[in-house]
């Protein structure tokens, strides 16, 4: 259970960092367009236990769908379905994540990001495998001249506590 939550937490953190990188002009654009693929991975641990992971991703003109199934050494499966849709008319990208853990518990996350004239807004609603919910809102402003990204963030935790913070990132690009 702890491992599952840790993996989910890492996935959320990684996804958040990748989204921030894309806002700074890094990420997907640097690697080219998203592609359709099928991938199978088998991981054998030093004690002989085997984990299997199968992923299929299909890309469309306005988004993608990625379906993954993981099988643990006991033969239990966990699933994860990620759907992303871009609406060029509203400058909006919507990402939905749904899954089940090896214990059969469900989790989900819905994220909507909208590009604005000077940055973006993002709303996220998540429900963990324990049934607890979290809401997050971000208003981000990019100052290209100063090389800054300022994010005003408001998080509503599962206990109802609201936390607000402002994060400013400065990035200087060395030009040849």
| N-to-C span | 49 Å
Unreliable stretches: 1-30
Overall 3D form: globular
Sheet with the most strands: spatial strand order: 1-2-3-4-5-6-7-8-9-10
The ordered H/E elements are HHEEEEEEEEEE
The proportion of residues in beta strands is over 45%
Question: Total number of helical segments?
Answer: 2
Arithmetic mean pLDDT: 86
- Sheet/helix structural class: mainly beta
Quaternary class: single chain
What percentage of residues falls in helices of 4 or more residues?
A: 10-25%
How many beta-strand segments?
A: 10
Largest sheet: 10 strands, antiparallel
Based on CA atoms alone, the radius of gyration comes out at 18 Å
Task: Describe the structure in your own words.
- The protein is mainly beta.
- The chain has 2 helices and 10 strands; from the N terminus they run ααββββββββββ.
- A 10-stranded antiparallel sheet has the order 1-2-3-4-5-6-7-8-9-10, with no helix packed on it.
- A hairpin with a 5-residue loop joins strand 1 and strand 2.
- It is globular.
- The termini are far apart.
- The relative contact order is 0.11.
- The N terminus is likely disordered.
Question: Layout of helices and strands, plus pairs?
Answer:
Layout: H1 2-23, H2 28-31, E1 37-44, E2 50-60, E3 63-71, E4 77-87, E5 92-100, E6 106-116, E7 119-127, E8 133-143, E9 148-156, E10 162-170
Antiparallel strand pairs: 1-2, 2-3, 3-4, 4-5, 5-6, 6-7, 7-8, 8-9, 9-10
């Amino acid at each position: 259970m702890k491992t599952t939550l840790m993996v989910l937490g890492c996935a959320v953190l990684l996804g958040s960092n990748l989204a921030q990188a894309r806002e700074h002009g890094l990420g997907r654009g640097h690697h080219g367009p998203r592609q359709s693929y099928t991938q199978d991975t088998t991981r054998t641990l030093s004690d002989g236990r085997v984990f299997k992971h199968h992923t299929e991703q299909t890309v469309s003109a306005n988004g993608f769908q990625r379906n993954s199934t993981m099988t643990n050494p006991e033969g239990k499966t966990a699933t994860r379905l990620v759907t992303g849709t871009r609406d060029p008319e509203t400058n909006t990208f919507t990402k939905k994540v749904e899954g089940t853990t090896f214990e059969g518990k469900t989790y989900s996350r819905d994220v909507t990001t909208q590009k604005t004239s000077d940055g973006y807004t993002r709303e996220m609603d998540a429900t963990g495998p324990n049934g607890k919910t979290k809401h997050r809102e971000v208003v981000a402003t990019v100052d290209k001249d100063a090389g800054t990204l300022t994010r005003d963030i408001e998080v509503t935790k599962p206990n109802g506590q609201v936390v607000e913070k402002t994060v400013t990132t400065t990035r200087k690009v060395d030009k040849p």
